[in-house]
Amino acid sequence: MTATTWRRGTSRKPVPQHEDPGPVAASSSVDDRVHPHRRPGRWVAAAVVLVLVAQFVNALVTNPFFQWDRFAYWFLQPVILKGLLVTLEVAALSAVAGLVGGVLLAAMRLSRNAVLQTVSWCYIWFFRSIPLIVLLLFLYNFGALYRTLSLGVPFGPEFVHFDEASLAGPLLLAVVGLSLNEAAFAAEVVRGGVLSVDTGQTEAAAALGVPKSYEFRRIVLPQALRSIVPTYVNQLIGLLKSTSLVYYVSLLDLFGAVETVGSTYNGDIVPLLLVATVWYVLLTSALSVVQFYVERFYARGAVRSLPPTPLQRVRSALAGRRLQKAGAR
């Protein structure tokens, strides 16, 4: 059977089309293999990026100014590892104290009490506005303003007195300063996570007569954690890097140890800075891995399929190559 169509334009004569070859002839003329669409632009861009990366690595390795032999010497020295432990200690204590303070501030901000809301808002506004280095230096000189601290009745008698200089050492000052700053940011993370829960669910729970505490524990909190935890882990990466500022309150963390050793060995300042850089990269990379798996864990039920892990991506790539080779044969 011959089909005819009309061409647009000058001719109005019907144009005959070829007859349908039938399913058997069509299947024999079409290649059974599925070929992926070729994208030469991507290959060109990838080649340019690889050349730039290779040039950067070559400049990094072949430049004698970096003194990689001195880098290897200093990388595991006890003074460096001691500073690394101080960094981890300050970061861990500040993370816990900052999270506790952030939860309290978020609860105050979400409260219907105007006084609590105002106090929480002022705290967050104030400490988010101050640079962390200014806050640490202010705390470092706090003893000049208040030489003694006391416990007692507000505006009344005092029962116990403390000498501020003997009570607040460099470690405590660093933890307090980082915690005050961290609590302001953590409060907004927690508050944002709670507000991300659909209000229709809480209204439905209230309509069913679900108690408030049960509603928060079983409905609001699990969904809020899906937003809070990944964001707060990202916040921890910023906190870890901020610990380098505690050197200015006379605490020898990783950066402080590098600076102190570098002042003695002036010729090794560059390899020492590389040592600090590599250690910070390793620590933040470990936190990034934790962040990936935390996000993946809390993504369950929210997405159709979980993002693949790096190992799963490698397996998938290898399986794809095996299928391509089998098809080529």
Description of the structure:
This protein is mainly α and 329 residues long. It has one domain: MetI-like fold (Orthogonal Bundle), CATH 1.10.3720.10. The chain contains 14 helices and four strands. It has helices at residues 22-29, 40-62, 68-74, 78-110, 114-129, 132-140, 142-145, 164-167, 170-195, 199-207, 212-242, 254-264, 269-298, 310-328; strands spanning 4-6, 14-16, 148-152, 158-163. The strands form two sheets. A two-stranded antiparallel sheet has the order 1-2. Strands 3-4 form a two-stranded antiparallel ribbon.
Structure summary, number of beta strands: 4
Strand residue percentage: 5-15%
Number of folding domains?
Answer: 1
Uncertain spans, ≥5 residues at pLDDT below 50?
1-15
Q: How many helices does DSSP assign?
A: 14
**Rg, please?**
31 Å
CATH architecture: Orthogonal Bundle
State the CATH superfamily name: MetI-like
How far the N terminus sits from the C terminus, by CA atoms, comes to: 39 Å
Name the features.
329 residues, mainly alpha, MetI-like fold, two-stranded antiparallel ribbon, 14 helices, 4 strands, transmembrane helix
